[in-house]
Design brief:
Order of helices and strands of chain A: H
Number of helices of chain A: 1
Distance between the termini of chain B: 53 Å
Structural class of chain B: mainly alpha
Number of strands of chain B: 2
Strand order of the largest sheet of chain B: 1-2
Strand content of chain A: under 5%
Shape of chain B: globular
Oligomer: heterodimer
Largest sheet of chain B: 2 strands, antiparallel
Radius of gyration of chain A: 21 Å
Helix content of chain B: 55-70%
Helix content of chain A: 25-40%
Shape of chain A: elongated
Largest interface: A-B, 56 and 58 residues
């Protein structure tokens, strides 16, 4: 971090590891945000077992969110240096 | 008391007692050599695996208040109350990566609270104090709300006395809770959370299958809901709500869900749950599995409409003399279930209040001990002193929460919770963004925090609630037309609503950015960063590290 070098008392950060690791897979974590775009689903029809679309669409996003998070977890866990499990 | 209520009470008491015994026994569970250490009492020894963490976080985040208040919100205002579902859908994926960083850096440096991290990152006890006080203040009304949920159940059972002593059953429940939290620390709620979840799952599954069958299916239930919500309210002449969102509250829905999701893991009690887990893998698995509760929450929210279709009426609170909308779900259960099963359901909600109340009081106690007592009052406190201080503080916090319930109308305590959400969100730049970058100057963060808090309070103060005739603190939905920045109204006349917390957070960030540029230009001292970039990915404590926080504990 840039500012940490301003203070002479701070030891230098370990140079080997970058502080921020970007992985394209992590973008999957943004998919559930679709449940915030209300114009997409704020309608009554089609209904499912009596539930308006507004309600069952959001319930349907729950497993999608779980699958996305699970994918990220499975794909990235080896890089995450998890020793003890 | 009717015969049915006696049966409900007996079942409730049996389950409640069983749980209390578990709470006291918990201190022996995975026993440490010495419970007189804050890591042991306040974080359960940092050894909870995936399952325990799942139950602990579930007990922490899906509380009695959620189970009581979210259906009540759908009951009274319709689709807007369903915001809790997208909120819990987006929360876990969004916070997974930041939480992993927080866990690692806290493990390396021995941080117990979010404020500990801020102190290490920014070398500023003052900024840490601001974060700690914000956390304690935001947590108190949250604990009070758990009590409101518990009391809603007690009053439905018929323990609906008037005046001060009408709260007596609540006092008894709370003395029991306080005693076993004092004794066992975080181990008690972790163990009880398992029982709570099993009970809640049984109750909800039965309710969501049995009740719609009994009432003619969801089609009929939604028809009844739409019809009732479309009736004009006697106080405003407008419809009270709608089973779909309107043009004016869609933005409120999305910003409320997003703001709540971001606030969720800024609350000290959620951080306590995360830091008590044994590894990064535990957190990753939990962020994957926790949304399973969202199903439960969605089904539960729909009980608000079920209550409309069943013609349920809220019970009049004996202490305030006014109908208490929190009693909708308990009253629905009492009216539709056999007495013994209603008793089980009430026990589930009641125990669902005790688990988070215990964790929250422990988290608030940790904040007090680490960031106020040890920092400013007794710098040479030993680990034993810290644990003792935290145990006492947990008692004080609980007494404070009980006072909340006795002094203020439970209806008002819901508003306090809204305020709590707005203020805890203002710690986002100093806690969450700081996990990624130290670009912000520490005093700029403090300035942004202060502006966000004050502006948020001013906006909340200015929101009336025509439905119950209140002039101030009537909710968290700000009409954009009312947005006033020193006389400048960018959206004049607009009736589109937005969540106050989101607006205040934007103000907070803008101030933090501007002040950072100013301070950097003036070359103000930035303080030392005690964390290193490798710390944020650490999977275990490096043996070469002897960080200050660890050595001082």
């Amino acid at each position: 971090m840039s500012s940490s070098t301003l203070d002479p008392h701070t030891p230098d950060p370990a140079p080997a590891q970058p502080s921020f690791r970007f992985r394209a897979w992590n973008l999957l974590l943004l998919v559930p945000l679709v449940s915030l775009i209300t114009p997409l689903f704020n309608v009554r029809e089609p209904t499912l077992v009596g539930l308006p679309f507004f309600y069952w669409f959001q319930i349907a996003v729950i497993p999608i969110g779980i699958v996305c998070t699970l994918t990220v977890h499975l794909v990235t866990r080896h890089d995450d240096e998890e020793g003890q499990r | 008391m009717t015969g049915a209520q006696v049966v409900q009470l007996v079942v409730f008491l049996l389950l409640f007692l069983a749980v209390a015994v578990m709470g006291f026994m918990a201190s022996r569970w995975r026993r440490a050599d010495d419970l007189n250490h804050l890591d042991e009492w306040g974080l359960g020894g940092r050894r909870f695996g995936s399952w325990v963490t799942w139950f602990l976080l579930g007990g922490d985040l899906y509380t009695a208040y959620t189970f009581v208040a979210i259906p009540a919100l759908l009951f009274s205002s319709g689709a807007l109350g369903f915001y809790a579902v997208p909120y819990t859908i987006i929360a876990f994926p969004l916070v997974m990566l930041p939480l992993l960083r927080l866990w690692s850096v806290s493990r390396v440096h021995g941080y117990v609270t979010p404020a500990d991290f801020v102190r290490g990152r920014y070398d500023s006890p003052l900024l840490a104090l601001a974060i700690a006080v914000t956390g304690i203040v935001a947590t108190m009304p949250y604990i009070a709300l758990q009590l409101a949920g518990l009391e809603a159940v007690l009053r439905t059972i018929g323990l609906n006395g008037s005046g001060f002593w009408g709260h007596a059953p609540l006092f008894v429940a709370f003395v029991v809770l306080a005693a076993y939290t004092y004794q066992s620390g975080l181990r008690a709620p972790a163990l009880i959370a398992v029982v709570k979840d099993v009970l809640i799952y049984i109750v909800i599954l039965v309710a969501i299958i049995y009740l719609p069958l009994k009432l003619g299916g969801f089609g009929a239930i939604f028809d009844a809901g739409s019809a009732k919500l479309a009736q004009p309210s006697p106080s405003t002449g407008q419809p009270t709500g709608s089973t779909l969102l309107t043009a004016n509250n869609q933005l409120q829905y999305a910003t409320l869900a997003l703001g709540s999701a971001l606030a969720l893991f800024l609350y000290p009690h959620s951080v306590t749950g995360v830091l008590s887990s044994s590894s990064r893998a535990t957190i990753r698995r939990n962020m994957t599995a926790l949304p399973a509760y969202s199903f439960l929450l969605a089904l539960l929210a729909l009980l608000g409409y079920v209550a409309i279709a069943a013609g349920t009426r809220p019970i009049v609170n004996g202490s305030t003399g006014r109908p208490d909308s929190n009693t909708i779900v308990p009253a629905l259960f009492a009216g539709q279930f056999p007495a013994w099963f209603a008793g089980v359901a009430f026990a589930a909600i009641g125990i669902g209040a005790l688990v988070p109340a215990a964790i929250m009081s422990i988290a608030a106690a940790n904040l007090w001990t680490r960031n106020i007592y040890k920092e400013f009052l007794r710098r040479d406190a030993t680990p034993g002193d810290e644990a003792r201080q935290a145990k006492l503080a947990s008692l004080v916090v609980k007494v404070g929460a009980v006072l909340f319930i006795v002094v203020v109308d439970p209806q008002f305590s819901v508003d306090l919770q809204l305020i709590g959400g707005v203020i805890i969100l203002q710690t986002l730049p100093a806690v969450a963004i700081a996990l990624y970058t130290r670009w912000f100057h520490r005093w700029a963060l403090l300035a942004g925090w202060a502006v966000g808090l004050i502006w948020g309070m001013i906006m909340l103060y200015g929101i009336p609630n025509p439905a119950n005739g209140k002039q101030h603190f009537g909710g968290s939905a700000l009409a954009l037309g009312g947005l006033d920045i020193f006389g400048w109204t960018p959206f004049g006349g607009s009736r589109v609503q937005i969540y106050v917390g989101a607006v205040a957070l934007v103000g907070n960030l803008v101030v933090a950015v501007v002040v950072t540029f100013v301070l950097r230009a003036a070359k103000t001292r930035e303080g030392a960063d005690h964390t290193r970039s490798g710390d944020y990915h650490a999977t275990r404590v490096p043996e070469s590290t002897t960080p200050d926080a660890v050595s001082s504990v």
